[in-house]
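Dissemination and training. As part of the outreach component of the grant, students in the summer workshop were shown how a complex can be specified as a set of sequence lines and then modelled as a single object. The example used during the hands-on session is reproduced here so that future cohorts can follow it. Participants entered these lines:
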Amino acid sequence: MSRPVRYAICILVALIFVLPLLAMVVIAFTPRESILDDGASLWSGDWTLANFSGLFGQFPVWRWFGNALLVASLTTALSVVVNLLGGYALAKLRFRGRSTVLLVVLGTLVVPVQVVMIPQFELVARLGLVGFFWAVILPSASTALGLFLARQFFIDFPDEIVEAARVDGCTTLQAFRRVVVPNARPLVAVMTLLAFMAQWNDFLWPLITLRDPDLYTLPVALRLLQTAYDNDYGGIMAMALLSSLPLVLMFVVLQRYFVAGISRSGIR
Amino acid sequence: MGAVSLSGCAGLTRRVSSTSSGSTDRVTMQVYGTDVETKVYARLAEQFSSERGVTVDLTVVPFADFATGVDAGLLSGTAPDVFRVDYPTMGLYASTDQLLDVTDPLEELAGDVRPSLLRAVTYGKRLYGVPQHVDTSALVYRPDVLRDAGVGAVPDRPEDAWSWEEFGDVASKVRDASPEDGSAFAVNWQAAGAFRWLTWLFMAGGHLYDEKLEKAVLDDDAGVRALEFTRSFFDNEWVPRSTSTKSPTYPDAQFTAGRLGMLFAGNFLVPAFADTIGDRFEYAVTYQPRDERRASELGGNAIVATRDSGNPELAAELLVYLGSSDAMKQFCEASVLLPTRESLAAQDLDFAVGGDLMGVYADQVSTIEDRDVADVTTPTFAEVNVDLANELESCFLGDSSPQDTLGAIADKVDAAALLNDGAAP
Amino acid sequence: MTAPTVAPAEVSPQGAAMTGSPGQARAAWGMLAPNLLLIGVFLAGPLAWAFAMAFQDKRSFGKGTWSGLDNLSRLFGDDVFWRALLNTAIFTAATVPVGVLLGLGLALLMNKALPGRGVFRTIVYLPIVVSSLVTSLVGLLLFDESVGIINGILRDLGLADVSWQSDGALAMTSVVVMTLWSRIGFSMVIYIAALQDVDPQVIEAAEVDGARAWQVTRRVVVPLLRPTTFFLVLVNLIWSFQVFDVVYVMTNGGPGYSTTMLVTYAYDEGFGPARNFGYGATVGVVLFVIIGALTLLQLRRNARAEA
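and obtained this result:
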């Protein structure tokens, strides 16, 4: 393929891929009257901030932003620790039942969340977690994907490093803490991004388990808007933009580490 | 970031109060609704708390998820003490013994509510909730569009309501006059509104269930007539094809956007119309057409208390308060909804907006008959409603014949009716 | 950090890995404990519960009664279930191969130095971080039949409206398109990461113009990427079978049953107004079994290919 052709294809692909995002941004700034009169359009020419000011008047946006940040951060921290430990054990330690554990973990990967939602809720409620952020944090702290990623990463991890630490008199756990974790930074980067993303974007589970407007997270507002009677595309897109922006920024900044992390995390 | 650390405490080490059940001086309440409605709920809750010296913890949830939250809460004992519920869903909760019996506390209210509406909150002769308001639909239209299409007079008295044939002529004229292959009108039977199709069945003189609520009877001549007529909405391109019963979007936006000449719309949309249409075009409301009889659907919501409420006395008291003449008046006036108390219905309420439209709606409500209410408040009606949406769409957009469709609905109604035991009031 | 100075000969890492000591087993279970506890309590438990409900006649608050295989036999006679299964299969067939192949194509295309490559890549990656709810809502905005952007563009071009929402095949198309949009970036990022391990000379050969490039790509590069492809096919398969948000928001399963999927059907039965927990759980469990079987099949095929 010649270079100009290659370039042209890239531009075409980029245009197609950017269209939905562009639509979100443009409509978020389009006045409601304009959408009502002429339909949603990428070049209506009218601009307004009214969609955003409307949101700030309707929801405690900052508080929900803070809640989302808190919940996603705690989940991520817990999830990274738990999955690092588990993944390492599955990859590097020999014990009876290892393959069974791996199979069970992989099995949970194929469970559709909607199917277990009712029993899961009943459980969370019986544990007295409803109304606590923990109701959201604990069930999503251990993800099969995270554990699997960690295992794949550690399988390729050089045994020599660990053995060296063992010879220096470290226990398994000490060796893990002192030499394994510091060498697992790319993995941690990937796991952090994936876990944070998943938790930040969740809306249905926080809505039913937190059950209090003081505890709601930002994407819940999106659900509230989406199910309102009037299809207020301007308001919905403004909220979609607000709730996506933190992740988009985070991703643009961390993208390099993300790719590097994946290339070393053994999914390949 | 002050808010973060504050909320951090509340959700991490301390349970937020709205999710534990009530106590001697605290009651939890869950509502959904439009902006205006939820604001009035907040005001009423505040009035009640200051009058009684108690706390009301109010939670607002989306309508689409309210039942999931309540279900889960009921299963696990974390349900709100008091919650808002639509009449069909209420049937399910009442019939499974989840609600607080409020027959005695609400005696005064019961004496003032029209029997057919009271029936919507009554199960096995016991009262389980406050019928807070009733909604129904009427035909909202644009006088300019109808004029331009050559439609002469629009009925301004109930007895002049268009017959189906007259309405069909109007629809054809409006369709022909609309620019770029536009449509004439839309019906608000999407998603949970599928039961609004029953209005056409009732108009044709049919019913969903037999009088004992044991068996479906809609597959008779009246049913065929109603379904053939409503299906012709699509065949004649009177309505946009995207406004069938399973559409993920509501058609109101198409009316407010000025793309339709007429819209069957609930009165609860009146504030939204005032807001989004503004003075971009003129609009008015007339009666739904008539066939064998006039009809209208029973919409609206009730306020109920959970049987296992932490403090049933206080919960019942809150219900009594919300059902009081004063609270119902405030609620209905601000949100432009129709009161269920006869004493209020007789008064001229001072509606926040669109008061001039409400006379027609009030008249539509008066066409609701006892048996119509019984049809839509069986314990399994909520699932019948889903079947209606599915089957009607296969007739409107697919190639299922009216007879087959009615037969399929009847089969599902019959299967569900087996579970309706003990429901008849 | 302790520097790894000991020569491998002194202790055999291989040996240590093959024979686990009791101490090692203890450490392993200790390290796995938090994970297993969380998975066991919050996932395996509820899953077992769902399995139990599939064999009960249980509706919302009533007490469940054991009903044996009643739910299953109803399932096999349920036209909507078969339709949902067919739709899910169509959706999977439309999203998995295309999603993976386009990811590979774009990765090869954008792997080479190119001015502005970073920008192109970022644009394709970005949908990864956009939530499925946002994706679905944007999809609704694009494909809305009356006020949507795509029909607006078509109208501006003087073309007729397309019935994205009221035509079954087109509704399915719109759902597939939005799904692909949100997924291709992930396939691409994984492939790009994998390409970093492929010998640069091989890649160069694949990038030379002419017929040979295609040959090298097909005969050398693609086989080298086989493990990556395996991983991507597997996760895409699982995701496709679990599709929910996009369908729920964009089409609500309609028009008719044209886009009803297994998960949306299970959700409607179990959480919808019917609250038929038993039947909803049955649909879910059958779905779980199907995905599980497909996954095992994939794993086995992969193992055989590797051997």
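The interface with chain A takes residues 1, 3-4, 7-8, 10-12, 15-20, 34-35, 57, 59-65, 68-69, 71-73, 75-78, 249-250, 252-253, 256-258, 268-269, 272, 276, 280 of chain B (CB under 8 Å). Students were then asked to discuss how this feature might be tested experimentally.
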